[in-house]
Design a protein that fits this description.
The protein is of the alpha/beta class. 41% of the residues lie in helices and 18% in strands. It is built from 11 helices and 13 strands. It binds uridine-diphosphate-N-acetylglucosamine.
């Protein structure tokens, strides 16, 4: 069965391609290589022994999207990762984000709603909750005004899909709200490849560990948390990838009663920045150089998932510990710098 993975050479996309191939799906990848590299294909093949079909394409070119679906009429499901994800950049270039993340989404849905039956999985984010009033965060927690154009694209993206599903029973979709995916495949054939200075915590830590960065700035230690640093729900990227395959199987199997659903993808466990640093020190045996800096604007104090819905409805649960995930990120960092 043929599945399209857009952004399939990116961080979460590539891990999902591996899990799909492991389950026997035939994968077609579309990627514009704006934040990834063709070498990732080799990493995927090294793990699974299988080759994905790869099309280098920018999905903003609407006619190419149309041609693609005309050529691949046998695609049974789409997992849509292709999007821009840097919060700061989205503030500077809002139209780029609206075009990449929402324009493209509209083109995809326009094609899928022409089909007799279509299944669609969307990469959403816990960013839609903003600073939630209650922890852990359930899927019915209110969506808060977005802090950035990036966050807005995830909120509006979900609305676009929901509204489209509403009037198109032939389309079924699942939005997955990721908490903080980290780590790398345990084989270390694929992992995260941030461009420039990493904005996210774990790649910054591992780059500091190998000496690429001088020290980590911990953004604030005066928050109302156990140790004053912010709390997040860090989840192993392989657990996130597996959830996509399970969500896809649900779309392939289920009768079309509710054709739009939303699930949190997290571990249900909150970890502070200092706890992540200690985890790194534990798995690497190295001391991490860090300093306390001002809070980062737009950061929420804490966010961790209530995972009961995903556990009960999808039958999915994150399996890896924080140490497992941080260790895989560290192994990967060492491999790519060797
Ligand atoms: C960030 C984005 C979020 C996006 C997600 C994608 C912001 C405000 N939020 O989430 O919208 O969906 O990435 O991966 O950018 N930290 C440090 N020092 C650093 C880097 C981070 O102390 O150098 C802290 C942050 O303050 C935060 C935690 O580490 O408390 C995690 O940060 P990060 O990895 O950037 O993730 P989020 O802020 O949760």
């Amino acid at each position: 069965m043929k599945i399209l993975v857009t952004g399939g050479l990116g961080f979460i996309g590539s891990h999902t391609v591996v899990e799909l191939q492991n389950k026997g799906f035939e994968v077609v990848i579309i990627d514009n290589l704006s934040n990834s590299s063709k070498d990732v294909l080799k990493g995927i093949t090294a793990i699974t022994g299988k080759k994905a079909i790869f099309e280098e394409m920018d999905l903003r070119e609407k006619t190419k999207v149309q041609d693609f679906f005309a050529k691949h009429a046998d695609i049974e499901g789409v997992i849509h990762f292709a999007a821009s994800k840097a919060v700061g950049e989205s503030v500077d270039k809002p139209l780029l984000y609206y075009e990449n993340n929402l324009g493209v989404l509209v083109y995809m849905l326009q094609e899928l709603t022409k089909q007799e039956k279509a299944r669609f999985i969307f990469s959403s984010s816990c960013t839609v909750y903003g600073q939630a009033d209650k922890m852990p965060i359930t899927e019915d927690a209110p969506v808060k005004p977005a802090e950035s154009p990036y966050g807005n694209t995830k909120q509006v993206g979900e609305e676009i899909i929901r509204d489209t599903c509403n009037v198109n029973p032939s389309l079924s979709a699942i939005a997955l709200r990721y908490f903080n995916p980290i780590g790398a495949h345990p084989s270390v054939h694929i992992g995260e490849l941030p461009i420039g200075v990493p904005q996210n915590l774990v790649p910054f830590i591992t780059q500091t560990g190998v000496g690429l960065r001088e020290q980590l700035s911990v953004f604030g230690n005066d928050n109302p948390t156990n140790d004053g640093t912010c709390i997040r729900d860090y989840i192993h990227v392989v657990d996130v990838a597996k959830a996509h395959v399970i969500a896809l199987q649900r779309l392939l199997e289920k009768e079309n009663k509710e054709n739009y659903e939303v699930f949190n993808l997290g571990t249900g466990r909150g970890s502070s920045v200092l706890e992540v640093i200690h985890s790194f020190e534990n798995v690497s045996g190295k001391k991490l150089k860090y300093t306390i800096a001002d809070r980062r604007s737009g950061d929420v104090v804490q966010a961790y998932a209530d995972t009961q819905k995903a556990n009960a409805v999808l039958g999915w649960k994150a399996e890896s510990s924080l140490d497992d995930a941080v260790k895989s990120a560290w192994d990967w960092e060492q491999k790519i710098r060797a």
